[in-house]
Amino acid sequence: MTLTSVIGKADGFAGKAEISKVRLIRGKQETVYDLRILQLDGSNNPALMDGDEIVVPQDPASVEIESVFKPEDSVVMEME
Questions:
Q1: Containing H/E element for 33?
Q2: Is 2 helix (H, G, I), strand (E, B) or coil?
Q3: Which label site among 19, 42, 43, 64 has the fewest CB atoms less than 10 Å from its CB?
Q4: Residue 16, by phi and psi: left (phi above 0), alpha (psi -120 to 50) or beta?
Q5: Residue 33, class by beta-carbon neighbours within 10 Å (0-12 exposed, 13-18 middle, 19+ buried)?
Q6: Helix (H, G, I), strand (E, B) or coil at 16
Q7: In this predicted model, what pLDDT tens digit does every residue of 21-49 receive, in sequence order?
Q8: Is the pTM of this model over 0.70?
Q9: CA distances from 49 to 18, 27, 57, 74 (A)
């Protein structure tokens, strides 16, 4: 399977995905792929191997802040 075929099987990208910065982590090596346009030679759609990790970041411009933390909202926990 390739990078895009696995993403497709997982129902594709969410509307807020930053598809220009999809990360493939293989062992200790990390490669970033721009999936906005697939290259004909397949260079940005690699075949995946067992153990590969795919990270699709959320576009920071689309993040909405739902609430604001205030100091008075904090809670002190005591350990016995």
A1: strand 29-33
A2: strand
A3: 64
A4: alpha
A5: buried
A6: coil
A7: 899 999 999 999 998 888 888 888 999 99
A8: no
A9: 23, 10, 21, 45
